[in-house]
Design brief:
Blueprint lengths: L11 H17 L2 H6 L21 H8 L1
């Protein structure tokens, strides 16, 4: 197994990109989301994995979802 170490991303390096992507959906609406999710619905989920993995980005995702 090969292990590759990455340095942490500075949130400033991707924050503007994420804001533009979210603004695009907010401005025009996301057709898939509007067709599937009703109103102000909120939910939780469970990620079930069959093999070990690395899941990156969860700490940074909180600023967009909470």
């Amino acid at each position: 197994m090969t292990v590759v170490t990455f340095t942490s991303l500075d949130p400033a390096s991707y924050r503007a990109i994420v804001r533009r992507a979210l603004a695009d959906d907010v401005r025009w609406g996301d057709l898939t989301t509007e067709a599937v999710i009703l109103g102000e619905h909120q939910t939780t989920g469970t990620l079930v994995l069959g093999t070990p993995c690395v899941l990156a980005g969860l700490p940074n995702m909180r600023q967009w979802t909470c």
